[in-house]
Amino acid sequence: MKKGLAILLSTVFLLSLSGCKLTNFFKSEKDRFIGATSEALCVIFTSENPMAPTPETSDKVKAIYSNYGFDAEDQAGMEAITKNYEKDEEVKNVTAKALQECSGIDVTAPTSAEISADTAPTDEVPAVDEAPAEQPVK
Questions:
Q1: How many domains does the chain fold into?
Q2: Is residue 96 situated within a structural domain?
Q3: Which of 37, 73, 97, 105 has the most C-beta neighbours closer than 10 Å?
């Protein structure tokens, strides 16, 4: 019993030293991805120039993903994980909400039903702002 407890405590200690957050250790990949992406988006969009992140911002983002247990140095691996969740509605909604909370940017995307309603053809004739030009009388 004492040996099992010692092993458990050693494992917890080593995980804490390795930079892995213990709370993230037990989460699913999807939950870790949501957490890391939410934090990373806040770092990026609150940086000086979100469209051209500095090397320091990129390092912070990599550290965030690493703290959630991802190999942030593996570009192909990170792209594959991102692709797994790019169409996941929960991931989109949670990360959009997190970004909105930290940056104040409304990033809620319209639903496909809203897009269809906005682009559906109608029988209405668009209003014209000015009266038609008068035609000369013959």
A1: 1
A2: yes
A3: 37
